[in-house]
Design a protein that fits this description.
- The longest helix has 16 residues.
- The chain is of the alpha+beta class.
- It has 7 helices and 18 strands.
- It has an 8-stranded mixed beta sheet, with helices on one face. It has a 6-stranded mixed beta sheet with strand order 7-4-3-2-1-18.
- Helix content is 25%, strand content 28%.
- A hairpin with a 2-residue loop joins strand 10 and strand 11.
- The radius of gyration is 18 Å and the shape is globular.
- The chain has a single domain, classed as Carbon-nitrogen hydrolase (Nitrilase/N-carbamoyl-D-aminoacid amidohydrolase, 4-Layer Sandwich), CATH 3.60.110.
């Protein structure tokens, strides 16, 4: 990271994790080893959605609800110790038990091992981003609503001299979440994914369009390769990517491979430069968003 500048340059490593062990301790051992490998020369390491467990939402199995853990908790403690030892920040996904509900969440741990609290759309300080839209559909064969409550919307986190927004997988389908994160000052969007199936063809193009629309850096780790849970095997398409604020694909990991780590240099000053050159924020008409909110409220049953 560039010292003494208002807009830093960040070295980012993106981990395309493969099969995660169903044994919690073994899973964390393997993930910390990946973190150690990725941290060399990196300011920030980013892992996919539900990093600390297999992606288990393709089947209904209530015993999996025991995998949820608090924030802070065992996983954040292990990653915090490693972050402090390595001097590298880390973002990862986990199954969060908040007591009254369970969430598909992501956390940011700073390079000194501190769990970074973010600010949500209501102005509250929160320790994690919780996935906002929870899918249940036949096309992707997932039933996340059986396991997760929805979060309350975008959250921004300040670390490494940068403001980060977060989204988790299905959230990337909703342009308003991206734009709300930009409105909250996000310069880098961290999009944690566990995607398979029909969305592979347009995955990188979708990220490029969202980066261009929001004029933010986009860092999107996906699972890669085959993972078997409860006898069901799914192939995750990988293609973990980094996209510039001008919509340029900077790097993309191989398709359907488990374990690759891709790296990119993020010049955060490019965010302001892109917005000056192509002033979408200046020319946006906010009344359209009010119409959209009113129309949605009228169309969706209470």
């Amino acid at each position: 990271m560039t010292a003494g500048s208002t807009a830093p340059t960040l070295e980012v490593a993106v981990v395309q994790a493969g099969q995660i062990s169903a044994d919690g301790d073994a899973a964390l051992d393997g993930l910390i080893a990946l973190f150690e490998q990725a941290a060399e020369g990196a300011d920030l390491v980013v892992f996919p959605e539900l990093t600390t467990t297999p992606y288990f939402c393709g089947v209904r199995n209530d015993s999996r609800k025991a995998w949820a853990q608090p924030v802070p908790g065992p996983a954040t403690a292990r990653f915090a110790e490693a972050a402090r030892r390595l001097g590298t920040a880390v973002v990862f996904g986990l199954y969060e038990d908040a007591g009254d509900a369970q969430y598909n969440s992501a956390v940011l741990i700073d390079a000194d091992g501190t769990l970074v609290h973010g600010t949500d759309v209501h102005g509250d300080r929160v320790p994690a981003y919780r996935k906002t839209s929870i899918p249940t559909n036949a096309i992707s064969d997932v039933d996340e609503k059986h396991y997760f409550a929805p979060g309350s919307g975008p959250v921004v986190f300040d670390a490494l001299g940068t403001r980060f927004g977060m989204l988790i997988c299905y959230d990337r389908s909703f342009p308003e979440y991206w734009l709300a994160s930009r409105a909250a000052g996000a310069e880098v969007m961290l999009v944690l994914v566990s995607s398979m199936g029909f969305r592979e063809t347009l995955f990188t193009q979708e990220l490029q369009v969202r980066a261009l629309e929001t004029q933010t850096w986009v860092v999107a780790p996906n699972r890669g390769g085959e993972e078997t849970v409860d006898g069901k095997t799914v192939s995750y398409f990988g293609r973990s990517s980094v996209v510039s604020p001008r919509g340029e694909l900077v790097v993309s990991a191989p398709a359907h491979e488990a374990g690759p780590i891709v790296r990119a240099t993020l010049d955060v000053a490019e965010v302001a430069a892109a917005r000056d050159d192509f002033p979408l924020g200046r020319d946006r008409q906010p009344g359209v968003f009010r119409y959209l909110a009113d129309a949605h409220a009228a169309a969706v049953p209470a």
